[in-house]
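Pilot study result, target chain (306 residues):
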Amino acid sequence: MDRLIASRVFVEVVERGSQTAAAERLDMSRAMVSRYLAELESWVGARLLHRSTRKLSLTGIGEEILPRCRQMLELADGMQASGLNAAEAPRGTLRLTCSHSFAVSWLAAAVSDYLRRYPGTAVDLLLGSQAVNLVEERIDLALRITNQLDPNLIARKLAVCRSVVCAAPAYLRAHGSPQRAEELVRHNCLTYSYFGRSLWQFEKDGEPVAVPVGGNLSANESSVLLEAAVAGAGISLQPLYSAAPLLRSGQLVSLLDDYRAEELGIYALYSSRRHMTPALRAMLDFLIERLAGDPHWDGQPHSGAA
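Predicted structure:
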């Protein structure tokens, strides 16, 4: 738990008179405010607030803790101001989380350039597709490709992730190329456990098309399915940023180019805008700049021949 942020949340709740007002002031969700309060009380080992439907009031322990929290925040704000004045560039370590495939295919190179631009910073990457508690895991920034956002977190949309249906030439020679999305039901489709495992969503001529798919291989990491597709195991629905180099080399062939696969947003998720470090702000700006200049996030795949 970030005890400094939890202390600031506690002070704001007391001064504003409600968790809702504090959440608005801190630019947090109400659920996140409640979580910080609960974790601060757990750390102190006592209840700090009497909660009722009408108002909030301090407990005896809360009255003792409140001035100490204010003193700690004043000291921290003073230290931060001194640090910002002394340093022209962002400094410190950022802890990021994202999927393995996104890190390998795109983020690792971007982070390397970020570190060269800001040599006073460092990045610690935690890889995984499953959601994690940012507070408990001390995560500064989570990068997720999804259309289902956690309401307890601040989400900043960075770009649109487009996907492509693809397969290896060897698979297509053996099994034929589907000409319509509905024909996918007759193919061995490699499915992603966390998204669209049995239903692939498309749009054609402005109309939605949903196709139930199945196959003999599924995985919770899209990069595994990408390698299996290259090996000729079946048809895969892949993010364009991962598949593009293999499409250009001819190792994979894009299919159903008349259909637009469901687009996902790529989001930066964090707990509060108010308490961003300069390094985190610089990282967000850098990622937006980098994504805006990358055609994989805006372009369409080029067709290939089986």
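One observation from the pilot: The chain is about 40% helix and 25% strand. A full batch analysis is planned for the follow-on phase.
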